[in-house]
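Our consortium's second objective concerns turning raw sequence data into structural hypotheses that experimental partners can test. To show how far this objective has progressed, the report includes one record in full. It was chosen at random from the queue rather than selected for favorable results. The single chain below, 169 residues long, was entered without modification.
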Amino acid sequence: MLPEFSRRQILTDPPQAGVEDHLEASPAECAALAQRFGIEALKRFSARFTRKPYPGGGLLITGRLKAEPVQLCVVSLEPVTEQLDKPFTLVVLPADGALSEDPDGPDEIQADATGHFDLGEALAEELSLSLNPYPRAAGAHLPLAQGEAAEATPRNPFAALAALRGAKG
C-alpha cells in the first residue's frame, strides 16, 4: 500500500548547480494526511526544493516545506489554523550507501535496490514532526482549579523565612 503522499523518485545525478523542483499535495492527499496525523484538516501542503549531487552517488535536497494544518486547541477545543513555513534538508543515499550516525546531521533516506526513493513520504514525515503538539487558540487559557483564587502578586517562597528571621531579631 502506498503512503498518502507518495512521490517516487529515482536517484539520478543532477547538474552541479542543482535542479529546482516542487511538489504539492492534492485536496484528497491533504485529507488523507490529516487523518493519518490525527488533526482536523490540512488545507494545503507543498514543498519547493533544490536537488544537488551529494558525495558517494547520493543526492542533497534542500528547500522549504509549507503547510496549513488545522488542529484543535488543547484548552478550548476550537479549531486553530497555523501557517508552517519550515526549511528542510534531506540526503538521499544509494542502496549500498552507509547511513551517518551523526544525530545533528541532515535526515537521510536510502534508495532501494532499483535506485528509487519516496520523496513525498519523507516530506510527510517532516510535516508530522513540525506539527505543534499543543496548539492553543488566541486568548485561550486554563481555568483556575476549584477553590483556587487568583493572586494579584505571586507569593515569595522566602517570605516565611523572612518572617522567622524578624521574630528572632
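The partners drew two points from this record. The chain is about 20% helix and 35% strand. The first helix runs from residue 27 to 37. Both points have been shared with the crystallography group to help prioritize constructs.
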